[in-house]
Structure formats: structure tokens, C-alpha cells
Write a structure and sequence with these properties.
It is built from five helices and eleven strands. With 312 residues, it is an alpha+beta fold. It has a domain of 148 residues. A hairpin with a 2-residue loop joins strand 1 and strand 2. The longest helix is centred in the last third of the chain and has 45 residues. 16% of the residues are buried.
Length: 312
Amino acid sequence: MRKIDFIFLSKDQLLWLFCLLLILIVFPCRSWATFGEDREKPKPVFTRKGDKITAKLLPRAKSTSVLIDFEVSGAKLIEVQGMDFEEADRPEVNHKDFKSALFVIELGELTSGGEAKVSIISDFFIRSTQYWIFNQNLETPWMDSKAQNLDRPDQVQELIIKVKDGGPFDSDGTENGRIIMLGGPKDSFWGYALGTLFIRYFGIFIVLSILMLGMIFSGKIFQYLEGKKARAVSKPAPQTAPVQKAEKPDLSNNGINPEMATAIAVALHLHFSGLRSSAPMHVSRLRPTAWTQQGRAQIMSERLLMYNRDKR
């Protein structure tokens, strides 16, 4: 019977599929918001302080609010309003490249046909951020304003746009001393999306690595504290005095010459030899005869004369 192979994907394809599912599980809402349609329409809130108007809004694919400042030189900044992108949606642009609502900037108090500079400042912008202008009276409504992108302290970028009364950036199309400029900041969607996915994918491993290093470091600290506590409890072992080796007596100057040492050794040998009992000798007894009895008596009498201490 033929065996059916149910595995239709290679190991690399399964690994990529698993990583994609992991990303979608960990960041479900953000992932769908990045690749899908925006369900939320950011509505900017504008506040004015002198000649500067600040817009506060929540851009697409961002969880915190951002601030965008509007300033004008060469004219007076009358008003800034927000507009939904659907009113200016055209096939030549991708609405995903615009991460915020469009802005309607109104300028006044300038000479007819005069020119002004509009500064748009925010830390939400990057060096590649562009500002695109929409003018529905033109054959090609959308155009790049060629804004000058300047670096400011604290990672703030400033976009400077030159606009002329009655020019292509003026939506009313007449030289009347009044400019209405409609547009918004534009960034590449795919660059942002791929960068975000890259940071989130490797961010998981970075966070886990930091946690692992923290656990290892804390374990080393606990081991050091436990060892220090154990060393403090343990009693020191009693110290033993070093054993001194017995010095050999110096016999070189005791006045004993070799002859005297030999005599002492012989005397000691004879002394200890006399203390040892001699082995019994088994002598067979003969029958006494007259000759043997006479000889024994003669020997005893001579010994008596020699060892008789009373006569001394």
C-alpha cells in the first residue's frame, strides 16, 4: 500500500509560518492595523499660543499621541484644521503612506502674489519625511512640496515649505493676499511596516536575553550571599603546633675514642650473655667406680680450697 505524505511544506517554510503566527498572536491588533485598513480616524485637537498652532493627534499604528507645531514667516497664520483623507483620495497616492489626517492651513495678511514660509515641526517626523500638497484644481492634484527637512535638537525635524499666493500650492488659485494650503506628512508605508516587524521580531529575543542575563546575575549574587553566610557560621579549625623532629646528639665532642667504645661494647655483651640461661645439657650418668669417686672428691676439695671465703 502506498504511503501518503501529508507534509507539503519544507522546514524553512514551516519556520517562517510559525514566526508569522507568533507575531500575529503576540501583536494581533497592531498587526492587522498595520496591514489592513484603519478603523480609527485620527481627529487632531488644535491649540493656539501666540503665532503658533499645535495639533495633538494619534497617528496610524502608534499608541501614543504626537504634537505637530505650525509656524509661518512672511504672513499671518490664521487657522489650521484637520481633514479626512477620503476627501483627497486619488489613485496616484497610497493612503497608507499618510499616517495622520490631512491639514488645511490658512494664511493671510500678505501682499497679493506674495510668498510665505510655513514651518511644520514635530518629533514624529524623520529625515525621510515628505510633505505632499493636494490641489483639486490641478490636473495632477497631488504633488511633492519639496520641503526642506532640517534637524533640530531632541530628535525633532522641521519641514519648511515655500508657498506663493495664487501658486500651485494655493488651493483657491487666485492672488488675493490669502493662501489655503492642503496637505499632510508622507512616509513610506512598507519601510515603516518592515522596520516595525523587524524590531518586534528581534525585540522578543532581546527582552528574553536581558531576562536571562538578569536571572544569571541575580543567581550569582544569591550564591555569594549564601557562601558568605556559611563561612561566617562555620568555626575555625584548631591550630596544631608543628611537630619538631628530635635532634640527634652530637657525639663528636664527648671524649670517647674508638678503643673505649669497643671495650664498652664487649663488656655489655658479656653482661647480657651471662644473664641468659644456658640450655640444659643432658649427660648420661655412668656407674660410679672407685677411680671416678676418688677423682670427684679430689676436685671438690680443690674447689673448696679456692672458694672458701671464711678463711679469707
